[in-house]
Write a structure and sequence with these properties.
Blueprint (H helix, E strand, L loop, with lengths): L2 H15 L3 E2 H8 L3 H17 L4 E6 L2 E6 L4 H8 L9 H13 L2 E2 H8 L4 H9 L3 E6 L7 E5 L1 H6 L18
Antiparallel strand pairs: 1-3, 2-3, 4-6, 5-6
InterPro entries: ScpB_csome_segregation, WH-like_DNA-bd_sf, WH_DNA-bd_sf
Keywords: Cell cycle, Cell division, Chromosome partition, Cytoplasm
Function: Participates in chromosomal partition during cell division. May act via the formation of a condensin-like complex containing Smc and ScpA that pull DNA away from mid-cell into both cell halves.
């Protein structure tokens, strides 16, 4: 199968899936190795970007997904009648940042870093599917460990957690 046809098949799979599709799944369907599938998907992503289409191909960890370009969000909201997305409170953003940079992390660790209770912020972030329980700490009480989700990565335009900007060291006051 030629490259253009493989891209068309991958595009159809991504369109039907809706959710991120692991590159290994694309490789299996196309009967190619994962490295070749990876190069194919990157070439496809570049093609979408260079053609300034309404869709873009994004990478999330080791998977790819077709999504609409953020700059067309207002038009999509108008078409669907959806209301503008609600932004997160400062407390939720602080909690989310702590989880993102320290995952897996317990509620107690978050509260120690923030200096305040974070029950509500965690509940909101769980409800919005930006964080999830990733396990339990092997300690008395077996506290829950939290980490970020794929939706977090998509929402903040990250391919993986490694793409988070480096933290700046705090200066003494």
């Amino acid at each position: 199968m030629e490259e253009q046809q493989m891209m068309a098949v991958a595009e159809a799979i991504l369109f039907i899936a809706g959710d991120p599709v692991p590159v290994r799944s694309i490789a299996e369907v196309l009967d190619i190795d994962v490295d070749t599938a990876e190069r194919l998907m990157e070439k496809m992503a570049e093609a979408y970007a260079s053609q300034h289409r309404g869709l873009q191909l994004i990478r999330i960890n080791d998977a790819y997904q077709l999504v609409t370009r953020p700059e067309y969000g207002e038009y999509i909201r108008r078409f669907t009648g959806a209301t503008k997305e609600q932004s997160l409170s400062r407390a939720c953003l602080e909690t989310l940042a702590i989880i993102a940079y320290n995952q897996p992390v317990t509620k107690a660790d978050i509260e120690q870093l923030r200096g305040v209770k974070c029950d509500h912020a965690i509940a909101v972030l769980l409800e919005k599917n930006l964080i999830r329980e990733v396990g339990r700490l092997d300690a008395p009480g077996k506290p829950k460990l939290y980490g970020t989700t794929e939706l977090f990565l998509k929402s903040f335009g990250l391919s993986s957690i490694d793409d988070l900007p480096p933290l700046k060291p705090q200066q003494a006051t």
